[in-house]
Amino acid sequence: MKPYPPNTKVKVLSLKLEGTVIERLKTGEYRVVCGAMTLIRPERDLEPLAKDKWKKYSAVAKKKQFQADTLEEKPVQTIDLHGMRVVEALAHVETFLDKALMADCGRVEIIHGVGTGALMQAVHDFLKKQTYVTRFHLDENNTGTTWVYF
């Protein structure tokens, strides 16, 4: 697949959001702006948005005046560890948590999947050792996701 250049309109498949590519990172992932959120997503989670569809959204945006809510919630950062082995996943989690702390996120979402539970257990063991993590728990509706709070 050809890399997406900056300003490419894409759809983030896992979140069902449209956005614009800002840059391709050295890791091969992409920084994508979706509204007020800036996300880092792997290439497999992006799909180019058809030009006719993007024009439709642009026309709607130009016609309407959008006003931001006065109480803004910080965007939730997400990392997806599907298909990774424990050592690789923990390296990504460590970098992800560092960036989330620097961005002053109140909480983050780690998607590790269900599987055998080995990846989840490794992530939870890692989180227990981190002094900046105040608490974490499995998502009540999805045991393949862990919420982490700072």
H/E element sequence: EEEEEHEHEHEE
Please tell me how large the radius of gyration is. Answer: 17 Å
> In percent terms, what proportion of residues is strand?
25-35%
Quickly count the domains: 2
Give the SSE layout.
Layout: E1 9-12, E2 17-24, E3 30-34, E4 37-41, E5 46-48, H1 51-63, E6 77-80, H2 86-102, E7 107-111, H3 118-128, E8 135-138, E9 145-149
Parallel strand pairs: 6-7
Antiparallel strand pairs: 1-2, 1-5, 2-3, 3-4, 7-9, 8-9
Helix pairs in contact: 2-3
Entry summary:
The protein is of the alpha+beta class and 150 residues long. It has 2 domains: 9-63, SH3 type barrels (Roll); 77-149, Ribosomal Protein S8, Chain: A, domain 1 (2-Layer Sandwich). The protein is 27% helix and 29% strand.
Explain what the structure shows.
The protein is of the alpha+beta class and 150 residues long. The chain has two domains: 9-63, Roll (SH3 type barrels), CATH 2.30.30; 77-149, Ribosomal Protein S8, Chain: A, domain 1 (2-Layer Sandwich). Helix content is 27%, strand content 29%. It has helices at residues 51-63, 86-102, 118-128; strands spanning 9-12, 17-24, 30-34, 37-41, 46-48, 77-80, 107-111, 135-138, 145-149. The strands form two sheets. The protein has a five-stranded antiparallel β-sheet, with no helix packed on it. The relative contact order is 0.12.
Properties at a glance:
4-stranded mixed β-sheet; SH3 type barrels; 150 residues; alpha+beta; Ribosomal Protein S8, Chain: A, domain 1; 2 domains; globular
